[in-house]
From TrEMBL:
InterPro entries listed in its UniProt record: Bact_response_regulator, CheY-like_superfamily, Sig_transdc_resp-reg_receiver
Keyword Transmembrane: no
Name of the protein in question: Response regulator receiver domain-containing protein
A GO BP entry: phosphorelay signal transduction system
Record domain Response regulatory: where: 14-132, 141-267
Database matches in Pfam families: Response_reg
C-alpha cells in the first residue's frame, strides 16, 4: 500500500469523533475547527452512529473512546478497516487508560495510535493535526542511535525533510557521552528528542538507552521524549520498552509518514509543556 494512501493529507479533512459524551465530542470539535480550517467533524455517540457515518462517505481520520454505550471502541477500529471503499485511515484511541492498554499491548493491528486523555484537548488537537496536516518544527534536534549507516541515512533524510537537525551516533555509549556533555554545559547541542533502534552493536541496547536516560540522567518523558524503533512483533517485548520509559514505539519496516507524525507530536507536546511552566 502506498504512503499516500496510508496517511491521507487533505485541505478539507473529515474527522470522525466517536465518544459517548456529548461534551467531549463538542470540546474536541471546537478545538479542531479552530486549529484546522476546513475540517468537517462528524460526531458519533455510539458504534451504531459511527457505522452509519462510515457508510455515508470516506473519512480521513477517526478518534474513538474505548468504552461506548453499545460496546467496545475496538469495534470502531475494525469497522473502519473493513468498510468497503475506505482507504487506509488513521484510527486513534482516546482514553484515560490508553497508556496501560499500550503497555499491556491490548491494542490490535486495527489501531494506528493512541492518545492519553489526561494530556488535554489542546494536546489532542496537536496530535490530530500531526496526522492530518503536519507542520515542521524548525530548529529541534534529534539524537539518533542506529548502528546501520545505510538505515541511518535513509531515516535521517525522512526527518531532515521536516527541518529537523539530526545528530547520528552508532552506539549507545556515544549517545551517553553527548548527553553527559550537554548536561554539564560542555556541548553545542541541545537535544529535544532521542530516537533509537532497539538492537544496537555493543553491550547496550535500546532498552538500556531508555532506562539510563530515565534513571541515571533523570530526564522525564516530556523533558526528553524517547522513541524506540523495533521490528520485534512480540507484544511482551514491546511492553517492556514502554514500561522502561519509552514515550512510544515505531515499528519496522519504518513508514515515513508514521515516523514523522510520532516525532513531531512528541516534540510539539514537550514544547507545549515548556510554555506552561
Amino acid at each position: 500500500m502506498s504512503q499516500a494512501l496510508r496517511h491521507l493529507i487533505s485541505d478539507a479533512p473529515r474527522v470522525m469523533v466517536v465518544d459517548g459524551s456529548k461534551l467531549v465530542r463538542k470540546l474536541i470539535a471546537d478545538v479542531l475547527q479552530r486549529d484546522l480550517p476546513g475540517v468537517e467533524v462528524i460526531g458519533c455517540a455510539s458504534i451504531a452512529d459511527a457505522k452509519k457515518a462510515l457508510a455515508s462517505g470516506a473519512v480521513h481520520l477517526v478518534t474513538t473512546a474505548l468504552a461506548l454505550p453499545d460496546g467496545d471502541g475496538m469495534e470502531i477500529a475494525r469497522s473502519v478497516r473493513e468498510a468497503s471503499g475506505q482507504a487506509y485511515v488513521p484510527v486513534i484511541v482516546v482514553s484515560g487508560d490508553a497508556q496501560q492498554h499500550l503497555e499491556e499491548r491490548r491494542f490490535t493491528e486495527f489501531v494506528t495510535d493512541y492518545f492519553d486523555k489526561s494530556l488535554g484537548h489542546e494536546a489532542l488537537a496537536a496530535f490530530i493535526r500531526g496526522y492530518v496536516q503536519p507542520e515542521p518544527i524548525s530548529g529541534a534536534t534529534v539524537l539518533y542511535i542506529e548502528d546501520s549507516r545505510v538505515v541511518a541515512e535513509t531515516t535521517k533524510r525522512m526527518l531532515e525533510r521536516q527541518s529537523l537537525k539530526i545528530v547520528h551516533v552508532l552506539k549507545a555509549e556515544d549517545a551517553f557521552a553527548l548527553l553527559t556533555a550537554e548536561s554539564l554545559g560542555l556541548s553545542t547541542h541541545h537535544f529535544d528528542l532521542v530516537l533509537t533502534d532497539v538492537t544496537l552493536k555493543g553491550e547496550l541496547s535500546g532498552r538500556d538507552v531508555v532506562q539510563r536516560i530515565r534513571i541515571d540522567f533523570a530526564y522525564g518523558k516530556r523533558r526528553l521524549p524517547i522513541l524506540v524503533m523495533t521490528g520485534d512483533s512480540n507484544r511482551d517485548n514491546q511492553a517492556v520498552l514502554l514500561q522502561a520509559g519509552a514515550n512510544d514505539l515505531v515499528l519496522k519496516p519504518i513508514e515515513e509518514r508514521l515516523l514523522v507524525t510520532k516525532v513531531l507530536f512528541q516534540l510539539r507536546l514537550a514544547r507545549m509543556e515548556e510554555r506552561e511552566r
